[in-house]
TrEMBL record, chains A, B:
Protein name: L-ectoine synthase
Sorted UniProt keywords: Lyase
SUPFAM superfamilies tied to this protein: RmlC-like cupins
Superkingdom of this protein's organism: Bacteria
Keyword Lyase: yes
Reactions performed catalytically: (2S)-4-acetamido-2-aminobutanoate = L-ectoine + H2O
Biological pathway: Amine and polyamine biosynthesis; ectoine biosynthesis; L-ectoine from L-aspartate 4-semialdehyde: step 3/3
EC number, as in UniProt: 4.2.1.108
Source organism: Sphingopyxis jiangsuensis
Listed InterPro entries: Ectoine_synth, RmlC-like_jellyroll, RmlC_Cupin_sf
Record carries keyword Lyase: yes
Gene: ectC
Length: 134, 134
């Protein structure tokens, strides 16, 4: 049985930050669950264009509000606590948090957590590491 | 892109209830994510002895408090908001919510959701369906 605590993870190297978001990686590939589980904060005012080519991801909103634009359909959907979206088709999308948004995210396959800071302070993608896309 | 809302799921047949718990199944096997995602309430005072023989499960506590007894080690651990446990070894355990506990749960492989009520009102396990064990 694995036991973890969000505040502990946030103080550890399993907490990653980049422009517009911070993610506490509660479970990673090495934990052998077959998925990874992250508690991710999306900061108010950010515009996060993302495309996870190698992952499926679900996001459950715990706090805050914002929108998600589905670049495949052109539609924008409101997000608030209690909403979930799932990128079941590697959907290209733009997240626009209007307030700080706290989310619980699941990735399949699991994130490895082996990313390294680059010179800009961002976290480049490892071979299978999802990050906000250009 | 899949979009769901907790309150909608709670009004649907994807919300299941049994003695001591209720679970809103936000994502099921049929959604093709490779995991299922449930928002589960564990009711205060319940004693839930569980053993998921065919699934790995992670549970992140959103609200409330209680304990988990690991029947493999005999140890009891406190649980509160921000804590996560993961049954990475099909761990036999007993959950004892002291207050109503709201949790976000991930199952691998995903739950099918095809369970049927039995005469007692409980939900017998489908071939791959986790339920509280005897």
């Amino acid at each position: 049985m694995i036991l973890r605590n969000l505040n502990d993870i946030r103080k550890s190297d399993q907490n990653v930050r980049a422009d517009g978001w911070a993610s506490a990686r509660m479970l990673l590939e090495q934990d052998g669950m077959g998925f990874s589980f992250h508690v991710t904060t999306l900061f108010a005012g950010a515009e996060l264009k993302m495309h996870y080519q190698n992952h499926l991801e679900s996001v459950f909103v715990l706090k805050g509000k914002g929108t998600i634009e589905d670049l495949g359909t052109g539609k924008t959907h409101k997000l608030k606590a209690g909403d979930l979206y799932a990128l079941n088709d590697h959907d290209r999308h733009i997240l626009r948090p209007e307030t700080d948004m706290l989310t619980a995210c699941v990735f399949n396959p699991p994130v490895t957590g082996k990313e390294v800071h680059d010179e800009s302070g961002a976290y480049p993608a490892a071979e299978r590491e999802p990050v906000p896309a250009d």
